[in-house]
Amino acid sequence: MQEVQPKLRLMVSSKNKKKDIEADLKNWLSNAQKVVVAGIGNPLRKDDFVGIEIVRNLQNRVSQFVCLIECETVPESFIEPITEFKPTHILIIDAAMLNLKPGSSKLIEPSQMMKHPAISTHALPLRIFCEYLAKTTGAKIALLVIQPKDTDFGEGLTSKLRETTTTLTNLLSRFLS
């Protein structure tokens, strides 16, 4: 029997415009009390580093009820600090192959990542990581995924991803301050 791959379904319908991602994030964070923002990415794979870059840019721009974590390629190593923070919401930011224009971003549920893998070589699949966190924290979990332009070996984001990073950092800063 041939397995049918589900289409990527958004939490809130979106057309990949700035206002749509803004509405998605605002809606998802609307009743948040304590938020973990976990950036994932490989610093040696150009645009794969976008999640870490956004978390770094949020430093000193969010409230005390937000915990920023730079997970790099091993998010499972941060389970303890995440659970100890007792978040109501966990936002994981990562690059993912979405077959969209570079810099496009979507807010999705963890279950939607099963057939749309992140780029980096996570030791533990993100879906399993998210399921574990959901069970242990009871937090609402979402992934903010961003289409990279270049994930070849090298350092630094492409100009398109730097632009996206600035936009998303400003949005998140506004909602989390």
Task: Give a description of the structure.
This protein is of the alpha/beta class and 177 residues long. It has a single domain (18-176), classed as HybD-like (Rossmann fold, 3-Layer(aba) Sandwich), CATH 3.40.50.1450. The chain contains 5 helices and 5 strands; from the N terminus they run αβαβαββαβα. It has helices spanning 18-28, 50-58, 79-85, 126-137, 159-176, and strands spanning 35-40, 66-72, 89-95, 105-108, 140-146. The chain has a 5-stranded mixed β-sheet with strand order 2-1-3-5-4. The longest helix has 18 residues, at 159-176. The model is unreliable at 1-16 (pLDDT under 50).
Topology readout:
Elements: H1 18-28, E1 35-40, H2 50-58, E2 66-72, H3 79-85, E3 89-95, E4 105-108, H4 126-137, E5 140-146, H5 159-176
